């Protein structure tokens, strides 16, 4: 039923679903067979197999946009995200509109991450001491910056001044020990891939 729901949402948004699978091991053969433009994969955690999955998929079908849906309690660590080499990141249980927005963005060659996963992943889990957490507004600003939006556009979206956006971004940098927009984007998405083109076929 879960896959049927995803398929219905994607088809309604104008994408055609060419295949679906129930286990990660089935993804590569299906991508080789159908050559989709997008693939959406649910993950519980990162291991040796999943860490190199994106590279194997792109070697089979290029250009290919790769979206991962992560479990909230899957044990993901911030440092593991670049290993996924994802174009889009979603938290399981997200709304239909987020799924469509992510699929459309990745289909257009852009990177996309939802704000909930940004909060979940960019806030390190405490080890010896509790790390500072991003506020809700800081999470919003960090998410929009990571999607490539400039301060002026972010200010318009959030109905605040550019100065307020800069203040929140400064706090994000301090809390996450980052030095620039580029570092924030890299930390969120891994290294950018600029060879993706528009797509309308998806694989689940």
Descriptive overview:
By secondary structure, the chain is an alpha/beta fold. It is built from eleven helices and six strands. The chain has helices spanning 2-12, 27-34, 48-51, 53-60, 81-84, 96-107, 115-122, 136-146, 151-158, 162-176, 181-189; strands at 16-19, 38-43, 65-70, 88-91, 112-113, 201-203. A six-stranded parallel beta sheet has the order 1-6-2-3-4-5. Helix 9 crosses helix 10 (162-176).
Number of strands: 6
What structural class is derived from the secondary structure elements? alpha/beta
Q: What is the C-alpha radius of gyration, as a whole number of Å?
A: 17 Å
- Strand arrangement across the biggest beta sheet: 1-6-2-3-4-5
The chain-level mean pLDDT equals: 77
User: What coarse outline follows from CA principal-axis ratios?
Assistant: globular
- Element string (H = helix, E = strand): HEHEHHEHEHEHHHHHE
**Strand residues, percent:** 5-15%
Number of helices, counting only DSSP H or I runs of 4 residues or more: 11
- Portion of residues within helices: 40-55%
Roughly how many Å apart are the termini?
Answer: 13 Å
Main sheet attributes: strand count, strand direction, barrel closure: 6 strands, parallel
* Low-pLDDT residue spans: 190-203
Considering the chains and any ligands shown, give keywords for the structure.
six-stranded parallel sheet, 204 residues, globular, 12% strand, alpha/beta, single chain
Write the layout of secondary structure elements.
Layout lengths: L1 H11 L3 E4 L7 H8 L3 E6 L4 H4 L1 H8 L4 E6 L10 H4 L3 E4 L4 H12 L4 E2 L1 H8 L13 H11 L4 H8 L3 H15 L4 H9 L11 E3 L1
Parallel strand pairs: 1-6, 2-3, 2-6, 3-4, 4-5
């Amino acid at each position: 039923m879960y896959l049927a729901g995803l398929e219905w949402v994607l088809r309604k948004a104008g994408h055609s679903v060419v295949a679906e699978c129930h286990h990660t091991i089935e993804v590569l053969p299906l991508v080789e067979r159908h050559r989709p433009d997008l693939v959406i994969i649910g993950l519980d955690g990162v291991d040796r197999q999943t860490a190199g999955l994106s590279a194997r998929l792109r070697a089979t079908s290029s250009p290919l946009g790769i979206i991962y849906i992560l479990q909230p309690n899957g044990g993901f660590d911030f440092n593991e995200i670049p290993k996924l080499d994802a174009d889009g990141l979603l938290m399981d249980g997200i709304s239909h509109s987020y799924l469509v927005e992510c699929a459309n963005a990745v289909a257009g060659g852009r990177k996309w991450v939802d704000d909930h996963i940004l909060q979940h992943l960019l806030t390190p889990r405490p080890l010896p001491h509790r790390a500072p957490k991003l506020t809700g507004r800081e999470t919003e600003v960090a998410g929009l910056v990571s999607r490539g939006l400039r301060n002026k556009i972010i200010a318009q979206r959030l109905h605040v001044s550019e100065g307020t956006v800069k203040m929140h971004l400064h706090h994000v940098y301090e809390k996450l020990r980052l030095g620039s927009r580029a570092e924030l984007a890299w930390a969120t998405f891994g290294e950018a891939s600029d060879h993706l083109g528009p797509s309308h076929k998806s694989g689940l």
